[in-house]
Design a protein that fits this description.
3-stranded antiparallel sheet, 12 helices, 16 strands, globular, Aspartate Aminotransferase, domain 2, 38% helix, Aspartate Aminotransferase, domain 1, 2 domains, 386 residues, alpha/beta
Amino acid sequence: MKKIQMVDLKSQYQKIKQTVDTSIEEVLNSSAYINGPYVKEFQADLEKYLDVKHVIPCANGTDALQIAMMGLGLEQGDEVITADFTFAATVEVIALLKLTPVLIDVEPDTFNIDIDALKKAITPKTKAIVPVHLFGQVANMDAVMEIAKEHNLFVIEDNAQAIGANYTFKNGTKKKAGTIGNVGTTSFFPSKNLGCYGDGGAIFTNDDELAHTIRGIVNHGMYTRYYHDVVGVNSRLDSIQAAVLKTKLPLLDGYCDSRRQAAMYYNNAFKNNPNIITPTTKSNADENCGEVCNSCDCHVFHQYTLQIKNGKRDALHKHLLDNNIPNAIYYPVPLHKQKAYTDDRYNEDDFKVTNRLIDEVISLPMHTELDKEQLKFITKTVLDFI
């Protein structure tokens, strides 16, 4: 059996090596390393794929979130609501901009922002909501957008883990994750479903004025060289990374299908065990898709995350490592308990789901190159222990 990887980027690269190498060589021969043709071509390709008017590439996913907030003109002290159960980058940029992060609990099945908690968290100082499409599952955007409209709030989608996913609204229409709110952001970190071979990110919007502002911000606040019209940063996607992403973008839907196939195998293996809760898929707030299937496009399985209910999660984590099966705990500490983001306003009773999840979740290997032999070994090892 081939060695099991948490993410097998090497095998994925080998399948597209010739095309990727040729693209990178073209960049090297052109010496157009910054804002070269590949950047513009990838931008146009991604706009078409997402069916969004504007894609603004940038240096990484964290920058994308920060720049989106800068572009919206949020001011010091404005409150921004986001999920407690997510990676720190989401709250990091809020704090960096001297905004006030407001962390709330998540749903027990999707791990995404809890709508009731969201409603309770809104105050006169609230200016924006940041739903995180965690692990590849789109948040309840029907409800988020309704609440945002009612309270005149911005919606900034953290789509770092869900590029390629679709959201089906209650009226039957669909949109790509990241294109629903005022602005969406993503990361092209190598392990993402659409990953480059370094750092990279992008911002999406259908708002012409906002897109214009953001284009200045990413380039030192310049629209004309050496004329700085807005306060900006230096955050650009380099041409080599754009060349890699342009090569991989046409393969993204296939990559997501491969992840769903692996998720289907996992789910079928674990579904009858009372001590294991498998991931939930919801096409919208009211429609639980049930079994994971190829037509279930609301979840792209950036991670495959189980809940272990018998108190043996940590022991399982060690057992898998002892059997050379990589795995991870995303996330071991909620944001409201991190030293950098503790706040006397928070009440532990408001984080019941998150506080339970940190003791139960475990993520298994998930990538495009998993084969049946590996999946069989992983699931058998889990079940034998549980």
